[in-house]
Amino acid sequence: MKPHGLTRRQFIAAASASSLAAVAAKSLPAYGDVTRKAGKLAILGGEPVRKNKAWPDWPHVDDQIVDAVVKTTKSGIWCRIQSETGTVPTFEKEFAKLMGTKFCVATGSGTQALHTCVEALGIGPGDEVITSPYTDPGTIMAILASRALPVLADLDPESYQLDPADVERRITENTRAIMPVHMMGQPCHLERIMAIARKHRLPVIEDAAQAHLAEYQGKKLGTIAPLGCFSFQTSKTIACGEGGAIMGSDEELMDKCYTVHNHGTSRKGRTEVIGPKYRMNEFEAAVLLAQLAGAQERFRRRNENAAYLTARLKGCPGLVPQKLYEGTASGSFYLYSMTYRKEHFNNADRSRFLKAIAAEGVGLSPYIERGLHREPWVENVLKLKVYQKMFSPQRLQQYRDELSCPKCDQVCQEMAMIWASGPLVGTRQDMDDIADAILKVYENRDQLAAI
Ligand SMILES: Cc1ncc(COP(=O)(O)O)c(C=O)c1O
Questions:
Q1: Which end of the chain, N or C, is more open, meaning fewer C-beta atoms within 10 Å of its C-beta?
Q2: Residue 245 to residues 248, 257, 288: CA-CA distances in angstroms?
Q3: Does ligand 1 have an atom closer than 6 angstroms to the CB of 109?
Q4: Kind of pairing between the strands at 155-156 and 161-162
Q5: Does the model's pTM come out above 0.85?
């Protein structure tokens, strides 16, 4: 693949040097041109940057998808166990091939995929898994569903990803796995996390729920650790309403995942272990199969547009795009996210900035407003009999005492993002509208106090 008209090597070098922005520097409107025509803020009665223009629709729907669902409906093959050549087994083969790994087990959601991995690794009551507080609840529910304890490590506030040093600091004698999350669809610092895992002999389950097709150090996210999981929930860049997948190249481990997700029943038909019923159905797989080709083109466009947007925002110190780690060749750009630095916006708080941007016809919003360490599940779970039995009172007290994640709190307060599955597939003009709106508000930052 040549993501930006550069060779793969040039692209990786450019991305690694600072960010993907380096590859989009061609044909940028000069910063001065934009600010000169910035004009009065729309929220104060000026002309909006963007008027009456729709963004690309999401989820993506086309005739191929509709035809695939009709065909599956008429076939009467609605459940994966009816046929070895049905849409679910076919999707598993095709997706594994596309991702460059050997095996895939499709599930009914990303949460189900993650929970299946936790069970397949034999993790249960009394065990601990280290993960991020800055994620979808599904990540920690996959751990709690096995009655294990999710231990939440703090973030790198510039990348919004797990801080590997804090991950290592939180390892105890009960730690059984690390579950890093690739937030926004861009890679976490997987190289360091894998090294920590090797040092402590811990398996890694990649939560790549948002990270379809993204590449890091020459491999697709979700295929680097022994197990990786995806979500195909509607908002995702490859979607079927609700769906998920487990990826891996270790046949024995992947067979265990199959058995767990198939109500504990192996491919040979023997009921062997505790297992929920998490099978993907044939309609979901039909929708996914029909969009795989288009998804790759949309992924390419989002990367191109993200790089362009990042390059255009270089003139605005008040909005700093998500930091990408060395080795990032591409991201899924499920979200395009930025840190709002109010000190560069005349100390206006984020909500004023977001109101002003919305009036310009461009929607930016906060993402996760509270880290999972601040949600009521913590006390509710620690009070449960199984947790009181399986963890010592000292461990549970230490868990409460060490729950704070100040960098995650900071990210929750500073983040401004665009839901990118649809908008980032747009045209260069769409990207210019986003950048122009941001730069216009920046240029008028002394007006924000009046909003
Ligand atoms: C990072 C992350 N992990 C896990 C999940 C759970 O996936 P699902 O909603 O398919 O269960 C999601 C879904 O939004 C997610 O974004």
A1: N
A2: 10, 11, 11
A3: yes
A4: antiparallel
A5: yes
